[in-house]
């Protein structure tokens, strides 16, 4: 009898109809956790692709802006005289002024570039890779003759044999996608014209 009691204590009887369903609950929780993890992975992957795409467009826009600086420098250098004398047209503007007189040029606002139709600035199309850009630029004089700015003479003129005259100009170059998508890039550069 002692042996029979040991056997009954050590091996309880199980009834297949009395299962509590714990495995089903655990499985459902695991499926829910895996689903959330997959959705998070999809979200992060999509954001990374968008970030990479935006960085590619930004890099291409910067390269197109460099081409705009080169075009502005070419426009300046082919003039037979200083732009303020030659009056080359839309891409060269005199120094801005306010109630106190002439002021130094500042970066044009976004509204300037969106209204630039070829009558207030120069515009060139640039294709960089698969991206098409509209590159616009406008130029101002950097200052009057022999103007000292932070200890550096901005413009130099002189007379006599072998004396070169040079003047510096501020150019603002703005690049935007031709389809209007994405952010624009605006850079400032200083160009020098020697005669």
Explain what the structure shows:
- The protein is 38% helix and 25% strand.
- The protein is α+β, with helices and mostly antiparallel strands.
- A four-stranded antiparallel beta sheet has the order 3-4-7-8, with helices on one face. It has a two-stranded antiparallel sheet with strand order 1-2.
- A hairpin with a 2-residue loop joins strand 5 (148-149) and strand 6.
- The longest helix has 56 residues, at 22-77.
Summarize the structure.
The protein has 195 residues and is an alpha+beta fold.
Task: Please outline the helices and strands.
Layout: H1 2-10, H2 22-77, H3 83-86, E1 97-98, E2 101-102, H4 110-114, E3 122-128, E4 131-141, E5 148-149, E6 152-153, E7 166-177, E8 185-194
Antiparallel strand pairs: 1-2, 3-4, 4-7, 5-6, 7-8
């Amino acid at each position: 009898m002692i042996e029979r009691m040991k056997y009954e204590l050590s091996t309880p009887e199980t009834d297949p109809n009395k299962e509590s369903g714990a495995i089903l609950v655990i499985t459902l929780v695991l499926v829910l956790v895996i689903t959330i993890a997959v959705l998070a992975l999809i979200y992060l992957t999509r954001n990374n692709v968008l970030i990479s795409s935006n960085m590619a467009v930004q890099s291409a826009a910067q390269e197109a802006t460099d081409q705009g600086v080169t075009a502005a420098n070419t426009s300046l250098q082919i003039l037979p005289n200083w732009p303020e004398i030659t009056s080359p047209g839309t891409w060269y503007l005199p120094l801005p002024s306010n109630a106190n007189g002439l002021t130094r040029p500042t970066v044009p606002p976004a509204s300037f570039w969106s209204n630039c139709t070829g009558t207030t600035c120069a515009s060139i199309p640039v294709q960089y890779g698969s991206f098409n850009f509209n590159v616009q630029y406008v130029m101002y004089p950097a200052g009057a003759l022999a103007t000292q700015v932070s200890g550096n003479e901005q413009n130099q003129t002189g007379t006599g044999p072998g004396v070169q005259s040079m003047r510096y100009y501020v150019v603002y170059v703005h690049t935007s996608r031709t389809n209007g998508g994405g952010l624009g890039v605006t850079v400032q550069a200083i160009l020098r014209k020697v005669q």
